[in-house]
Amino acid sequence: MGRGTNKLTDRQCRTAKPPEGKQQLKLTDGGGLVLLVKSNGGKQWQFRYRRPSGREATMGLGVYPDVPLSKARERRDEARALLADGIDPIDQRKAQRSAAASADTHSFEAVAREWWDAVHRHKVVASHANRNLRRLEQYAFPKLGRRPVSAIEPPDVLEALRRIEALEHVETAHRVKTLIGQVCRYAIATGRGSRDPTADLRGMLRSPKTRHLPAITEPAELGPLLRAIDGYRGQPTTRAALQLAPIVFCRPGELRAAEWQAFDLSSGTWDYQPSKDGDPLVTPLPRQAISILRELEPISRSSRYLFPSGRTPDRPISDNTLTAALKRLDYGGRMVAHGFRAAARTILVERLGWGIEIVEMQLGHRVRDAHGRAYNRTQWIEQRGVMLQQWADYLDELREASDTEPTADRDR
């Protein structure tokens, strides 16, 4: 820097105060660098210059002493070098900030959170959406979060997934791979990505071990279980939940979190959202289910939930309640709450002759037509009503039978 610069000292900067009665004091270091000292004790570095257009301008360089004299001089010199090349330092700073902001909105984490908020949470129930967000936060963001989504390559994703595999969370690795793919496809659709790197990872992960949950699917074994449930001596709400579980065969989490406001006992329907996606399912209730609910009303109708927790009535019973109750009935290892779904699917299709599409819809699964379009879940409601009533009647016969399997009326 030429003559007439670097006039200030650290001591001058440190001790400078405006004169008595003045609001501010300007200390000039030369080359356009000024320290503006205010009466309230604040001190700010400024660079004053003439823009390439000829207009005068002032650019802030930071607050003293956070930015010491030496650093302020570096920033002044950088700004002067830009001016020598015909570049306005203020315009340069705006461009850099814009690029940084763009990079923030184009990072994998930013795109993923936007996808979750704009798309995913509206398609699945809240608990499932929140679980998927936690998976991204725990497994994807630490490795990929700050990377521009367009720069993520298959090896980057594979490295993140291998870390999950190393924890023996193979099924989680597959779930995270699916989520990353959905985020990348959203980035393509919104103009921030060009490809889905997970498409090249087919076969790269170990296959998850198939978990077979204990389930009784033989009618002759189901009858004694139903009788045992009727004789359950624990909480009345737990017994009611166990009695409803085989009749409606929804997911255990959907049953335990069922809310009274979703039931219309006059019309005999239960309108809820299956936990795997956000499409509502209207379930016609057979008369046996309505009877159980009528008996339950005076016990839990004052609560939001059909099956409130005994300790905290404003929350439903826990995940483990029904499985623990089955263990108390000496069915531990042979039957879990989820097993009623397997029993219903097997018997309705193989023994009672119902079409797989209707059964799958009642199970809360997506059913698609020949063109790949998902059926509306209010579809086949009459047929499902007939099916559920026949199923409940069949369970009654199993409960009352001794050694012979009942013959259900299959006329529909």
Automatic annotation (TrEMBL):
Q: Where is the Tyr recombinase domain?
A: 212-388
Q: Where is this region: Disordered?
A: 1-24
- Taxonomically, the superkingdom here is Bacteria
- List the InterPro entries: CB, DNA_brk_join_enz, Integrase-like_cat_sf, Integrase_catalytic, Integrase_DNA-bd_sf, Integrase_DNA_bind_dom, Integrase_recombinase_N, Phage_int_M
Q: Which UniProt keywords apply?
A: DNA integration, DNA recombination, DNA-binding
* Record field: compositional bias (Basic and acidic residues): 8-20
Matching entries from Gene3D superfamilies are given as: 1.10.150.130, Integrase, DNA-binding domain, Intergrase catalytic core
Signal peptide extent: none
Q: Name one GO biological process term.
A: DNA recombination
User: A single Gene Ontology molecular function, please?
Assistant: DNA binding
**What family does the database annotate?**
Belongs to the 'phage' integrase family.
Indicate what this protein is called per its UniProt record: Phage integrase family protein
**Organism of origin:** Halorhodospira halophila (strain DSM 244 / SL1)
